[in-house]
Design brief:
The structure is a single chain. Helix content is 13%, strand content 35%. It has 3 helices and 9 strands, in the order H-H-E-E-E-E-H-E-E-E-E-E. The strands form 3 sheets. The protein has a 4-stranded antiparallel sheet with strand order 1-2-7-6, with no helix packed on it. The protein is elongated.
Length: 157
């Protein structure tokens, strides 16, 4: 496993603690089926995204989508009665899978649909008003405004 020293990043950054675990997970290659099922991630616009997974052979009731702790998990597990088919050739993989996607803090799932063997998951980034940039007006020196600084108010002349 590859290790990366993120110490220089931590010297000048605050709140990026989860970056180390995100990078560690990206470099972890202990999953034998890391490429199954294949998927696409699409940026529809600045705040909307879509994930499409190729899940041919799976029914809607054999798929499970969950979000917990900022991680979107998609699981597929075939029902037992369909596993006992006697194939002469099986080119469509229908093995069980679990695929995880790390979500940014304000990304929410808007819905999911299954059509033509493709599972489409819609996502949107909804940044709260309190976190959006705001323009601060600059008052002139002649206004004699009171500014708050610390526990006491100081008069600016």
């Amino acid at each position: 496993m590859t290790t990366i020293d993120l110490t220089p990043l931590y010297r000048s950054s605050i709140g990026f603690d989860s970056l180390a675990s995100l990078l560690e997970g990206a470099f972890r290659s202990d999953q034998p089926s890391a490429g199954y099922p294949p998927y696409n991630i699409e940026a529809i616009d600045d705040n909307r995204y879509a994930i499409t997974l190729a899940v041919a052979g799976f029914n809607q009731d054999e798929l499970d989508i969950q979000v917990e702790g900022g991680i979107l998990t998609v699981r597929g597990k075939k029902n037992e009665e369909t596993q006992n088919t006697n194939f002469l050739y099986q080119g469509i993989a229908t093995r069980s899978f679990e695929r995880k996607f790390n979500l940014e803090q304000h990304v929410e799932i808007t819905g999911a649909n299954l059509r033509n063997g493709l599972l489409n998951i819609g996502l949107v980034r909804e940044i709260p008003e309190a976190m959006k940039p705001k323009r601060i007006s600059i008052d002139s020196d002649t206004d004699n405004k009171t500014l708050e600084h610390g526990p006491e108010n100081k008069k600016v002349a």
